[in-house]
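User: My collaborator sent over this chain with a note saying "see what the structure looks like." That's all I know about it. Can you take a look?
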Amino acid sequence: MFTISGSNPGDEINSQSYFLTQWRVVLTYFKVLLFPIHQRLIYQFSASQSLWDPAVLAAGAIHIFVLSFSVYLRKTRPLLSFGIFWFYLTQAVESGIIPIKYVIFEHRLYLPSIGFFLALVSEMILNLGNHKRFWIVISVVVVVLSVLTYQRNKVWQNSYTMWENNILREPNLSFPYLNLGIALFSDNKLVESVAQFDKAIVMDPTNIRAFNNRGTAHVLLKEYQKALDDFKSALLINPQYAEAYLNRGNMFGRLKKYDQSIQDYTEAIRLDPTLATGYFNRANKYKVLKQWDKALDDYTQSIQLNPNNKAAYKRRADVYQALKKFDEAIKDLDQVILSGDDSAKAYFSRGLAKFKAKSFADALKDLNMSIDKNPTDGSSLFVRSLIYKSLKMPEYAWKDVIDAQKAGQVIDPRYIEELKKERLR
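Assistant: Without extra context I'll predict from the sequence alone. Here is the result:
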């Protein structure tokens, strides 16, 4: 079975080629440990396909020499020997015969490097002893590594600097451009993100994530035909790519083409039945179309897949209220508030549901909380006025309805007249 390499697009790797490639990769790890400069998160590294490749033969010869040297010194230099064996043994976990998409990652050195530094320090102590020159060498190493660490931290200070540095080191790889584009997209720098997705696609015309993300950026820029073309390209590369159907469905939703939107969400869910966002987004469209039962089913499925989605509970509560299932709506809104949503809107929604359920005293508590958090919310003031009216407290109802009008809430004149009459009784 072949895996497409992420370290050099177009390369196919299987157990044999991955193993041969790792002979060269481990030499690169040695270089990184000895000379930690020009590092990067993603390397461009071609796969080795033949044992007779001169680079593979040279790497193999070096490894055989190092391991033989370690065996030879196992009695006279046990720490050096143990450190070398530790390095190779722990490195074998990810540099063996099981293909991994990215053939090289510096973080795979964390555990093996213990052996490397054990061997290095043991040799320094053995050869330099507890003399002045030992401490001079240690001091120089500490200063150099401290400077390099400081410089490396500057590269890692944010997503921009990290991926820009990677592009500087590997300008022909698609992945760093993709991730720089995603970082820009996350900060709503849409035009700039599109430019990076363009470069990612130039470097790898099969990069479906670049097409998908560029399409999403075009949607937000209201460049809908370009977005449609990108989603189509992604699906031509991989017709099983659920994310592209999901995002195209979002685009159709923005265009109020709800039937097409629902079709795409349905296909995304078919391809990935665990896609909570697909159920949630499709439920939103059913809700707009007032297909309450279908919306209810999808919100419920979305919550089962992602119980932390507070928006799904809120929207399902709206559906329950539309179906006059007020007790169920209140339970969902309880969950929203218990999960940490202490906003005025949350208390207003629950208070409204309790009012419709004729639980006036409990509804009043929630509306009081809502108004305490947002004293000029006309909707909350008006609903509290309705509650006071139901509780036969016309003076309080009158004050709230006047405040609601001042806050911009449109009030039916008949309600005003009705309250006037109640105050006179």
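A starting point for your reply to your collaborator: The mean pLDDT is 93.
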